[in-house]
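Methods — Computational structure assignment.
A single polypeptide chain was analysed. Its primary sequence is given first, followed by the predicted tertiary structure written as structure tokens.
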Amino acid sequence: MSVLDFHPITPAPPAPTPPPSRKTKRRRSSGARLTGPVTVAQPDRYEPPATVRELCARFQVYADKKYRKPNGEPTGEAENFAQAFRALEYTIIALDSTLGATGTDDDDRPVRCLFDADPNDIEPDDLEAVGRVMIASDLAIDTINGRLRRIKQAFRWGVGKRYVDKSVLTGLEAVEKLLPGQCDARVSDPKLPVPDDTYKATVAAAMRDGEHNLALALQLQYHTGMRSGELIQMAGSMIDQSRRPWVYEVPRVQANTPRGVKGHKTDRHKRRLVALFNPARELLTGRIQFVMPFAAEKPLLLNGHRAWTPNSYRTKLIRICERHGIPEWTPHDLRRSFATRMEAAYGVQVAQLLLGHSSPRTTEGYVERDLAAAFAKLEAG
């Protein structure tokens, strides 16, 4: 037996292949897409809906699946569509021109309910009649325009599914939105910031009644402009105290977020940072030092062992106002107060950044214009 039998010579392993470059990967992926025909399975086509009722029901199923947060919790948009479709159900079109725009169930003359009509028979006049029905129901003009827009969206979805003819959608899109002064729709009162005297009286009343958490929440919103949902989620671990000013990063609703956690409609695609300047830091210092050692992940505002909700926060504020005879206002009015102060002191761009708005036009809707102060500055200059 030779030495080679006891010490076999193994060949050297091949040199490792270098990983493909990014350009090579892109070429391979594009080549894979273009090498040959690809068979795509088309979704099942159901029979076209025979009535508007059936079209709305199918779109409602689609809306219930689409308008959800990353954690699967439904948003309020699906319910908004349901309310818009109820206006179609309550709209009855008189087939006799002597009846005018609408008829009633007690009329002996022929009528047609839009909900039972063929979707391809809906005309622009029918959508205008829906608007008049909502005007008669004393809905605000912004609410009416929003519901008409959602009805158009349902028909646009029907066109994409080949349920509705394109000409129907073209006619509905030609219906203009209602404008103040050009119709009898009610115009809501402008939403204004809470006066400083009212805010201070409410905070003092909350302190006298032992509602220290409520007083703290109102003062934090006054000095930061946070939304109610952002405020009630704030925990000590979410605040970066190493920076000046302190920065609170609002948690975003993700796939693993427990249900019940409320996020803003923009938190899917936008990071929200709240600056905590000196007044807010002074309010939070004692609370954070007390909570951080044993409950850093829990919200700083608790109702016993339960976290607040936007509705419970608003209810607490309304009860304080009713108890002490203070004019009623809402927590969101503090956000308008903050926007007005920041815009007057630093301009609309700074106010936009601090409020977390994507557009300065949104910020301008929060700002109250003080014409008297503007006239005084111009007169002095």
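Note: The two ends are 112 Å apart (CA to CA).
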